[in-house]
């Protein structure tokens, strides 16, 4: 897809304007994903304060991710109709508004509803932000590495912010997230401009046509299963470890730092040295083992915390590799490929939190990790069967030559 050139309102040279616009979008991505992780350390406290079961608490993730999954089907067309910049601003504004509403709410149903609104804002902003970065940077792999680095840093800083503010009140992290999103909104509104020309509106059926390509379908199904495991760990582990709010914040801060390292330095080196399918298979095999160790190894809580933190490296590597493959093996317009991939990965993510709560309540606290290991192991099988096709499709992608 040929993306329109982006300009700024300043009189700086075009390259400088594009650079500033790209960093503004990057910063907004970082802040947006801080809003995901900021909830993590306060989940046990919310459950305690509001008298909620683990399953009810996990609804805060499930409603958020479920709305994201559905709305990503339409995000590309909304961006084509309204313009990428406008959709990004609407998404950021919705996130700020619903984060504030979460901080003011007083029940689990209200929190779940407002988290769904937060997911709507994220569904509009996050895929649009990636398309903007692809246009601004002009090199798919570099843009994706930047995007995933912002996600990793956001996911690391979010839990730390949540732990620090949440140790005073579970409401404060929501207020902090709202304030940060307003800063992101201001930076994008000030520094990023797009011409009035609009892209053609494509039918939503184009998203489902992407799945006709075997390599892309394999990547999408791998993403669905992998993100089930990702958000099982992110959403359920705070309830499993029984740490303090600050302790959880520090744990997932370390996890997020390694997430950022895995999605940038490690991903860049491995994707240049090895076939992408081999990178995916190795990372998924490592995550399968870590899920088993976290749930069932007869070790102390500090050792399990270490396993959780170390898993961030493999999760970051997977995030960057799958996102790269999603835009390089489809050979479709990037907005369409992004929507098709995001639908499957957020669908898998949405199933994880609430199902982990139900599994824990009925089968025992460690058992959700067995389901996480099984999901990731099944992703290994799918990738292994499609490995040759995935690597061949990536090698023939015109965007990377």
UniProtKB/TrEMBL annotation:
Keywords: Membrane, Transmembrane, Transmembrane helix. The chain crosses the membrane at residues 20-39, 59-80, 87-112, 118-137, 149-166, 172-194, 215-234, 246-267, 279-299, 305-322, 343-360, 366-387. The keyword Transmembrane helix applies. Its main location: membrane. Pfam families: MFS_1. It is found in: Membrane. Residues 21-391 form the Major facilitator superfamily (MFS) profile domain. SUPFAM superfamilies: MFS general substrate transporter. InterPro entries: MFS (IPR011701), MFS_dom (IPR020846), MFS_trans_sf (IPR036259), Tet-R_TetA/multi-R_MdtG-like (IPR001958), YfmO-like (IPR053200). This is MFS transporter. The lineage of its organism: Bacteria, Thermotogati, Deinococcota, Deinococci, Deinococcales.
